[in-house]
Design brief:
103 residues, flat, mainly alpha
């Protein structure tokens, strides 16, 4: 089919969830559940709520970042996209060194 980059990214995301979720539950499911319960047992309910809010915001941010990368890749040549991505990484490293004052 002739899919747009947005549709392609959506299909790839759903397929990766369907493939990886059963494997993650089979391998780490019960251990993750027990660690979750052990670490949040004595914490107030607001801590658990903030944890889930942060997890959801992190996932949403990553999804939107990848969505924009797919859209950018559809508009420019792949080499241009790769060079831009490399420059972005350098800028992030330099800015984090300046902000956190860590040589």
């Amino acid at each position: 089919e002739n899919m747009t980059p947005t549709n392609l990214y959506g299909v790839v995301t759903v397929m990766s969830l369907v493939i990886s979720l059963p494997l993650c539950i089979a391998v780490e499911g019960w251990r993750a559940y027990s660690v979750y319960n052990d670490n949040l047992a004595d914490e107030p309910a607001s801590t658990e709520q903030m944890l889930w809010v942060n997890v959801l915001l992190s996932g949403l941010s990553f999804f939107l970042y990848n969505e924009m990368a797919f859209l950018a890749l559809s508009e420019v040549h792949p080499i241009t996209h790769a060079v831009g991505n490399t420059i972005k990484r350098v800028v992030i490293i330099v800015v984090s060194i300046i902000v956190f004052q860590n040589p």
